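**Paired protein data**
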Amino acid sequence: MSRRIVFVCTGNSCRSPLAEVLARHRYAALPLIFASAGTDAVPGQPASDGARAVARELGLDLDAHRSAPVDASALAEAAWVIGLTRVHAALVRSRVTAAWPGAVGLLGAPGRDWRREGPLAAGPGSADPDVADPWQQDIDAYRRTAADIDRRLAAWGDVFRELCAGKGGAS
């Protein structure tokens, strides 16, 4: 069973790399592999200065990160591909084949598989499931984004533990 989790944003330079390193830190005790990719990523680009700076403040390291597109290799053997926004999740959902065994999720909707349950509709009074993009904003925007991602990652704990126990995700 695959235990690979891929976080997806647009350019794979801010949000998804932060999600990757924050998840790796938060769930270090679980036998999971965390990665990230972008729906419109230019391969080989470093994480943004703001993302690297905030990661350093948190004792994490994004210096070696290089962007990767959402392609067959990014999706290969992923149990979950988790979008940082509804648009990212919908794009991933549209790109996978029926034969692909993984689940497509949204960071703000823990455990909901968009491939099987369909997209999450935003209703009046509901919390926004999307993670705001800090691209080209000040360091405080990156700090808020990192805190938001980490808060949303905490809600995925049961899903990740079930995956490790062989009860959830792709086989």
Q: What stands out?
A: The chain has one domain: 4-118+131-164. Residues 139-154 form the longest helix (16 residues). The chain is about 35% helix and 15% strand.
